[in-house]
Specification:
Strand order of the largest sheet: 1-2-3-4-5-6-7-8
Radius of gyration: 18 Å
Largest sheet: 8 strands, mixed
Helix content: 25-40%
Number of strands: 8
Number of helices: 11
Structural class: alpha/beta
Distance between the termini: 40 Å
Strand content: 5-15%
């Protein structure tokens, strides 16, 4: 049974329907919908969304994720960047989050779609801020460098969970490889906000989270998000713990104590949750 602190207020607002209509009419996807995010009503009501690039099918099989892992008929929709930029214009967005499924079947992991989408958005208005949340691109730094060279304000790559749980929860990912992606990104663009995030409640121990926080401090990552894992359906990895707000605060306090300046740690926090405010509050602390 979910505890009281996990009850999410419903947000029913005309702006929410407006966002849904724009998304549907442009035939685009959001991670908000595909991942069944609990904040979707709130974010859509604020006219914000995290756009999901490269379709709805992922080549990996993370056990916590609601996105389809059916790899039949994988395609690249070359018109997707145009439709997303059109949605950005209709929604009059000033801050855009771009993420994607993982496409290990593509030579560059789909980085060219990120790049094309960023450039099309910037053609609308060069002052629109773009945050990217990227897969690991199999640790290919040359591909990552191409995205880092684009006009972005935040580069985000999520660790998702502690090292011990990777074989069970993220069998096709690698903890050290993801750390290397973050480390390279910070070294390559020292003045760019580099961000990562994890979920709590997957069975991790407190000391393991502290070790992960220490790991990202060693490579000078600027920002960390921590939120409660919620099982998207009965066939997905089960919730092992409903983490208290006190423990979330403890993670935040420890992170800030060792010098991680930008930490967003609470029950409903997700990588893209209030990302614009998080960036505005963080950009002077790089």
């Amino acid at each position: 049974k979910k505890p009281e602190w996990l009850k999410k207020q419903l947000f029913l607002h005309s702006k929410e329907n407006f966002v849904k209509n724009v998304i549907n009419k442009n035939n685009i996807h959001t991670v908000c919908s595909e991942a069944r995010c609990p904040n979707i009503g709130e974010c859509f009501s604020r006219k914000t969304a995290a756009f999901l690039l490269l379709g709805r099918k992922c080549t990996r099989n993370c056990r916590f994720c609601n996105i389809s892992t059916n790899n039949d008929d994988l395609v690249v929709d070359k018109d997707e960047p145009s439709r997303i930029s059109s949605a950005v214009k209709k929604l009059k967005l000033k801050y855009v989050v771009l993420t994607s499924v993982t496409r290990d079947d593509l030579d560059d992991g789909g980085a060219f779609v990120f790049i094309e989408t960023i450039r099309r958005i910037k053609k609308i208005d060069k002052n629109i801020l773009v945050e990217v949340l990227v897969p690991d691109f199999l640790g290919n730094f040359k591909i990552i460098e191409k995205i880092l060279n684009e006009d972005i304000c935040v580069f985000n790559h999520n660790l998702e969970t502690v090292k011990r749980l990777y074989p069970e929860i993220r069998p096709m990912a690698d903890y050290n490889r993801s750390l290397d992606v973050l480390k390279f990104s910070k070294e390559f663009k020292k003045k760019l906000l580099i961000k990562t995030g994890i979920m709590a409640g997957l069975g991790e121990h407190y000391d393991e989270v502290i070790e992960l926080i220490d790991d990202i401090k060693k490579i000078n990552i600027d920002a960390l998000t921590i939120g409660q894992y919620l099982q998207p359906g009965k066939y997905f990895y089960p919730v092992k713990e409903y983490v208290t707000r006190e423990k979330f605060k403890n993670y935040k306090d420890y992170s800030e104590k060792i010098g991680i300046k930008n930490v967003f740690s609470d029950v409903f926090v997700r990588s893209s949750y209030f990302s614009e405010n998080f960036y505005i509050n963080s950009k002077f602390k790089i």
